[in-house]
Amino acid sequence: MSESVQCPKCKSTQISAQKRGFSGGKAVAGAIVTGGVGVLAGFHGSSNIDVYCLSCGTKWNPAKRATQEKQVLMAKKAAHESSWKKNFYKAYENGNQERATEIVTSESPHLIRNGDLDGAYRHLKNNDKVTTIIQIIFLILIVLFFGWLVSKCS
């Protein structure tokens, strides 16, 4: 069973796809900025495809739209994981073993082997610590890079 392509705005299946082609505006801008060779800028993005809704006129790029949808899905997944972990930590730390077991069993059953709730808690906390450390290191590297870049430009 195949899924038909729909307009993201009106959900119509009356759509048309077109290849972008040469852009005169980009060519003129490129020629002004760089001279004659800048005319080649008109070909930038010419292989991209745009999809148009014939019912409401909405235009979209399917590749960009897929990327955006994937980012939204990943953000929802991260928010869900953060939420259940928070609830698990709260239940475990308040001594509600039954609720903590219920949460970790429903969300990540591989973590609780042989009823080892303490091990699941330690594992999740350690992963959170490692993630935080990696984020801090990454942030430090970005700051150092920009500091180096500023010193080179001065």
TrEMBL record:
Keywords from the UniProt entry: Membrane, Transmembrane, Transmembrane helix
Domain of life per record: Bacteria
Residue stretches spanning the membrane: 130-150
Name this polypeptide is given: LITAF domain-containing protein
Lineage of producing organism: Bacteria, Pseudomonadati, Bacteroidota, Cytophagia, Cytophagales
